[in-house]
Design brief:
alpha+beta; single chain; binds zinc ion; Sufe protein. Chain: A; globular; 18% strand
């Protein structure tokens, strides 16, 4: 498979300097998930205040796609209302599974991940952080 197409500049930028990442001890992690097909490992913490996703922290040990998607997800979702976040999780994961493309002006950096759709084995890498956030929201009762 041709990985070159995937490793665009935006993805590499997030991979090299991921946003909202920190080490998360096991007993603090709200979500702890592994992607056996790629070896990606994500831990996530989220906080909701007054119906707004006020914070997300991620520890991601994985490939560039997983790391970049995690970083982009936090950048895009923090500060949004929970209902908006849920909409994004649904629309983004659907898009990655072959559903309709979201408008470019809404996607920003996430646009770089659209190419991953062509590589079925990597789709999980791109959607993992989003499902982890969904799990965390459930736990928060948000
Ligand atoms: Zn991966």
């Amino acid at each position: 498979m041709q990985l070159d197409d995937l490793y665009q500049e935006i993805i590499l930028d997030h991979y090299k300097s991921p946003r909202n990442f920190r080490q998360i001890p096991d007993d603090e992690a709200m979500v702890d998930e592994e992607n056996p097909t790629c070896g990606d490992h994500i831990k996530l913490i989220a906080a909701v205040e007054d119906g707004v996703l006020s914070d997300v922290k991620i520890q991601c040990e994985g490939c560039a796609i997983c790391t970049a998607s995690s970083s982009m997800m936090t950048e895009k979702m923090i500060g949004l209302k929970v209902a908006e976040v849920r909409g994004w999780i649904r629309d983004f994961t659907e898009m990655m599974r072959g559903g309709p493309d979201l408008p470019e002006e809404d996607l920003d950096d996430l646009m770089a991940l659209r190419g991953v759709k062509k590589y079925p084995l990597r789709i999980k890498c791109a959607t993992m952080a989003w499902h982890a956030l969904e799990d965390a929201l459930k736990q928060l009762g948000a």
